[in-house]
Design goal:
Largest sheet: 6 strands, mixed, barrel
CATH class of the largest domain: Mainly Beta
Structural class: alpha+beta
Order of helices and strands: EHEEHEEEEHEEEEEEHH
Strand order of the largest sheet: 1-3-2-6-5-4
Number of strands: 13
CATH architecture of the largest domain: Beta Barrel
Distance between the termini: 97 Å
Radius of gyration: 31 Å
Amino acid sequence: MQASLNAQQRTGRGKNATRALRRSGRVPVVVYGHGDQTQTLSVDALELEKLLGSISVDNTLIDLAVEGGGTTRALIRDVQMHPVRPQVLHLDLLQIHAGERIRLHIPIRLSGTAAGVREGGVLDHVLYDLEVECLPTDIPDAVEVDISGLGIGESVRVREVSLPESVHVLNDPELPIASVTPPTVQPADVPTGTDADVTPALVRDRSRDGELAGENG
């Protein structure tokens, strides 16, 4: 997946400059990379909010068009949010080069209805994304996992995922992605109260009827 974002150079430093920047409707951005000079930029808050609401943050390449400075391709590495309001306070981007292999997380999407669920089993979705290493041009949008064949007591594991050869999965191949577990049967409630207390006593009394008859005879 790929998207674009406009940015401007940022000159002011410190908390006061950052607060003023946010009051003007912009968000401070830092772009760093392997051996590249760190860039301090800013982006429009509304444009950024719209972008974040329409992409997968973990694996979308951003074409960052810097005013007066060309275009930088980057991945989102950190989004700092306001603790109370739905407001982005800061954005960290990692600059990407065309021939450089990168590590990132790809979301897992389950498709189909497991056969075991139709039989009363419970679907347990264990792993929600895969960590992979690949070139920027080979980043998958998502990992599709068909669970329709899963019966009760069965799992689909990382080693069963199908991805292009250029995409190397870094997770343990034996990790379960999803499982179907047997239905949980709740034990019947044990009766409590006056009736439960009296009944055992009556049984015990009746069991001694023959003994009492012999003693009184």
